[in-house]
UniProtKB/TrEMBL annotation:
Ranges for domain U3 small nucleolar RNA-associated protein 20 C-terminal: 1-116
Protein name: UTP20 protein
Organism: Alaudala cheleensis (Asian short-toed lark)
InterPro entries given in the database record: SSU_processome_comp_20 (IPR052575), UTP20_C (IPR057525)
Cellular component, GO, one term: 90S preribosome
Pfam families per the UniProt record, alphabetical: UTP20_C
């Protein structure tokens, strides 16, 4: 898709690409700023190349305006999600408590995996799953 966006922008040219610049820059910006673990480095370099191509194509001023608007929009979305999460914590404390328990459980499991990788002879005690007990109807 990134190659397609680059090809379309070159094909449209300088004047006709300007209205579509924020739409094209949104996925490129998202890929550049993502920090998840399984990120493909080729995608990051490709998005950087296409951004450089767009910068040369439309000029630095128009590019900067479009890029800053995309940045601002992404920051607003991030802030809105954060605010909604905080409101949900107040509105639905049971859901928030479940999310917190899950996060703590994952943190403990990660810590155990890290210890096992550092000291292979050490085996951390794992929480035994009681799947059948959870399925049973208890009154």
């Amino acid at each position: 898709i990134f190659k397609f966006l680059g090809a379309i922008s070159v094909d449209l040219g300088q004047d006709r690409i300007k209205p579509y610049l924020p739409t094209i820059l949104t996925p490129l910006y998202r890929e550049l700023n993502s920090n998840y673990a399984e990120q493909d480095p080729t995608l990051k370099t490709l998005s950087q190349e296409i951004i450089e191509l767009l910068k040369k194509l439309v000029g630095l001023e128009a590019f900067s305006l479009a890029f800053s608007s995309v940045q601002k929009q992404a920051n607003q979305k991030r802030a809105m999600r954060k605010k909604q999460r905080a409101l949900q914590t107040v509105a639905n404390p049971d859901i928030a408590a479940r999310r917190k328990l899950k996060r703590h459980k994952n943190k403990a499991e990660t810590r155990k995996r890290k210890i096992e990788s550092l000291r292979p002879m050490y085996k951390a005690k794992r929480h035994r799953s009681h799947a059948l007990k959870d399925l049973a109807m208890v009154e």
